[in-house]
Design brief:
Its main location: membrane. This protein is an all-alpha fold. The protein has one domain (about 25-280). Helices cover about 60% and strands about 0% of the residues. The chain has a two-stranded parallel ribbon. Helix 1 crosses helix 2, helix 2 (about 45-80) packs parallel to helix 5 and helix 3 (about 95-120) crosses helix 4 (about 120-130).
Length: about 280
């Protein structure tokens, strides 16, 4: 029997991938235009920016390819654990309550997962790709090791389905809320939010999380609301003129897209915050 024509499926995959990457590119462009107004670093590596753009295209394709697998795994886990313990409203003013509940829950899970990424050596080997950038700018937003998205699909996101039974459209809205905040937090933008600097994640608050200075290690983990850093004792409130250099303590950084794709397998593991703190203490 002749195999069915794979071209329509490939075309559909390519269209979905390009649509997602168009969104990312649009946010990169808008972010770069905003950054140009008041940059923290005036001279940044164009080679690194090109690497970030290319790596984002590949990691987006890998994530798109893995979506059916992670979606099926999430449904299986939720059904296995008897998901939907709390039914969230899908009509009227209850929609706002539902979106808020999902946003707070996802943000807390993101915070906890981020803590694990810095605490467990295997997770840190992957996550250190994101921290390796000395050029801190909006194109860094999506420079996460591609396998981390799979881990979230299998381990973290099903927990939301176990806790809540919610209309898919509301879940989509809650997920989209994180998008602009995440891109904003990675901007190379000198902005003074004053007393609001610890209200929502922003370029200065998150830059301290990427800092190479030992006093900033394991601080400011939040993705959206610094509330979690305050509650769990990991908040570092930035001083008005505190804009530290970023990157790993050994200055390791991928020199190519290929190097980024096999980053955790590289010979040197450098940049472990715990190791850096130990060296400072000595």
């Amino acid at each position: 029997m002749l195999a069915s024509n794979p071209l329509p499926a490939l075309w559909h995959f390519a269209c979905e991938w390009w649509f997602r990457y168009e969104i990312v590119l649009s946010l990169f462009i808008v972010g770069a235009l905003i950054e140009a107004r008041r940059p923290v670093q005036h001279l940044q590596s164009r080679a690194v920016i090109r690497l970030n753009l290319a790596y984002s295209a590949i990691s987006t394709a890998l994530g798109q390819a893995a979506r059916p697998l992670t979606a099926a795994a999430s449904v299986w886990i939720v059904n296995l654990l008897g998901g939907g313990l709390i039914v969230l409203p899908a009509h009227g003013w209850g929609v706002f309550v539902s979106v808020l509940a999902l946003v707070l829950t996802i943000d807390l899970l993101e915070y906890l997962f981020h803590r694990l990424q810095h605490a467990w050596p295997l997770l840190w080997r992957m996550h250190s790709l994101h921290h390796s950038a000395e050029s801190f700018n909006v194109t860094l937003t999506t420079r996460h090791y591609w396998f981390e998205a799979l881990l979230k699909g299998f381990l973290m996101f099903p927990l939301v389905g176990v806790l809540f039974r919610v209309d898919p459209s509301i879940a989509g809205i809650a997920t989209l809320v994180f998008l602009p905040v995440n891109f904003f937090a990675h901007m190379n933008l000198r902005i003074n939010l004053g007393r609001f600097v610890t209200w929502v994640n922003n370029p200065q608050y998150h830059r301290l999380h990427h800092s190479r200075r030992a006093e900033h290690f394991d601080k400011n983990f939040t993705q959206m609301f610094p509330l979690w850093d305050r509650l769990f004792g990991t908040m570092w409130t930035p001083a008005p003129h505190e804009w530290p250099p970023t990157g790993l303590d050994d200055a390791a950084e991928p020199a190519s897209v290929l190097a980024a794709l096999y980053w955790p397998l590289r010979r040197r593991t450098g940049g472990d915050p715990a190791a850096a703190v130990a060296r400072v203490a000595e």
